[in-house]
Write a structure and sequence with these properties.
Length: 188
């Protein structure tokens, strides 16, 4: 899990919610302005990077208590997040008319899409991963995908938005299974 490929896969999986919202935001815009795209990408990138730090700190505190079954918690958290992402992808679109680029709305969207990053931060602390590198990668990938998402959504986002959330969920479930298998069969 601690290798770079796993961190990058986690970052992409975490970024799927933000990417999907960026796409739907781009769909709703008649003309994309760079300022809007940068604002959304900055909010999503910041919160996706900040929440794992909070989770990691909480996990470091709790690790002494739950060390013997932490792999089951990591598996459960990633499985739950992955299933939720797949479930959310199957829900009908909310065609609300609110302004997604308003400060309050953007903050709420960024926080709500980064809750899973909090759980990943807890998981990383259980796995004794140093948090700086994953946080930078998660933040940069989320920023980049969100920035691109606004433009992609404006062009043709309605074709694949839900599929991306499903892929992100499947990646998290796969990583959870990998953690469990590694601990049960290879960490004896």
């Amino acid at each position: 899990m601690t290798n770079m490929i796993s961190i990058i896969l986690i970052a992409f999986a975490l970024a799927m919610d933000a990417f999907a919202i960026a796409i739907t935001s781009g769909i709703k815009l008649k003309k994309v302005r760079l300022k809007q795209a940068l604002l959304m990408a900055s909010f999503f990138g910041f919160f996706q990077a900040f929440m794992p730090v909070l989770g990691w700190l909480a996990g470091k505190w709790a690790i002494r208590i739950i060390r013997s079954f932490d792999h089951w918690i990591a598996f459960g958290l990633l499985l739950t997040i992955g299933v939720k992402m797949i479930h959310d992808a199957r829900q009908p679109d909310n065609q609300s008319a609110f302004n997604r680029f308003q400060f309050t709305i953007l903050t709420l969207l960024a926080i709500s899409t980064s809750i899973d990053a909090l759980a990943v931060g807890i998981t990383l602390s259980f796995l004794k991963v140093q948090i700086v590198e994953p946080v930078i990668i998660i933040g940069l990938i989320t920023f980049t995908l969100s920035l691109a998402g606004v433009y992609i959504g404006n062009l043709f986002g309605h074709f694949f938005e839900k599929k991306l959330e499903t892929v992100g969920g499947l990646i998290l479930i796969g990583i959870g299974i990998k953690i469990l298998i590694e601990h049960l069969f290879f960490n004896q």
